[in-house]
Amino acid sequence: AATACFVIAFIAAPPVDIDGIREPVAGSLIYGNNIISGAVVPSSNAIGLHFYPIWEAASLDEWLYNGGPYQLVVFHFLIGCACYLGRQWELSYRLGMRPWICVAYSAPLASATAVFLIYPIGQGSFSDGMPLGISGTFNFMIVFQAEHNILMHPFHMLGVAGVFGGSLFSAMHGSLVTSSLVRE
């Protein structure tokens, strides 16, 4: 349902009143965007932090105008990712493996939760969430850097070093294992 909602919203959703000031922002392809500039626009600032399911709106047009598809897609995405984390844990346990794949997957899950859930809660509205599109993602990163100077934060520096270090060690491990394979 969430994937279908994302595809339909990306292609044909009407403009969303993201700032709550009756100036809608168009993010769908049918309203003149292309694959790069298209996005599922976050919920309206008028909604704030309220959960906004389809059945709470007076009409489907109101739900679309206030950015309801964004909440539907993001919440289902986070729930799906958390369930997949649990699946990895269970498979590791049942196969008698150690849980390091699950632990490794928890890092991107934590960052997605921070961007799509924790940050908007901290800002007081889901309208501050990251738009679901290419240009929207880059715009979110630029605004985030301008408002919070994240690049100079020591925990961000450690996280980036950890990601790059982890990819380096993964590449070294993979090349070592591959180079030591012997056909018998």
Automatic annotation (TrEMBL):
Q: Where in the cell is it found?
A: Cellular thylakoid membrane
GO BP annotation list: photosynthetic electron transport in photosystem II
Q: Where are the transmembrane segments?
A: 69-87, 99-122, 157-182
Entry-linked PROSITE patterns: REACTION_CENTER
Q: How does it sit in the membrane?
A: Multi-pass membrane protein
**Which leading EC class covers this enzyme?**
oxidoreductase
Per the UniProt entry, the Enzyme Commission number(s) are 1.10.3.9
User: What are the recorded GO MF terms, alphabetically?
Assistant: chlorophyll binding; metal ion binding; oxygen evolving activity
Indicate the family of this protein.
Belongs to the reaction center PufL/M/PsbA/D family.
The protein in question is named Photosystem II protein D1
What is the species of this protein? Desmonostoc sp. SA49
Q: What is the lineage of its organism?
A: Bacteria, Bacillati, Cyanobacteriota, Cyanophyceae, Nostocales
